[in-house]
Amino acid sequence: MEPSTTKLNLQLTSAQTHADDTINLFNDMQWKHETIMGNYAFKRNQGLISVTHYKAALKIAKHLFSQYEDQLPPPDSLVPILVISYLNLADFWAQQGKNNQQKNCLIHAFDYLICKLNNLKSADHLHNHICSGIDKIYPELMLCLQDCQRLDILEEKKAMLASLQRGRII
Predict the structure, then answer these.
(1) Model-level pTM?
(2) Closest listed residue to residue 153, CA positions, set 102, 91, 90, 84
């Protein structure tokens, strides 16, 4: 009786894993669709449509991140889709000449990733992915803060990154 119970448990585990993969793939496809539609509208200067799709893509990316951040190993696309979503939204705000919204978007992206890095339970697989994401967001944030003449925030974020690089996260 024990082997059949084990076989049933393995089948259930396999079915659950398959269901999780299907859900992940579906959400990833939704993210991709929203991003493509946002890019399409962006190229055609359809601001309201573009920002709606970019915000939907960011919402999906955050949902996927929270859903799979504890999975070992995490999906390779977990951090990149989050970073791409934030950068698309920031680019949209820049194109619209709304530097304050661009700044807020990039600050939120940087702080979100720093927070996720701070909340890691150990030096798990996600650490390097999040650090790579920060490396993509940080230069954009620095340029934006310089353009907005927000040197106070610029110095604060530089200190956070320096602390991170020393291995002490604030």
Answers:
(1) 0.79
(2) 102
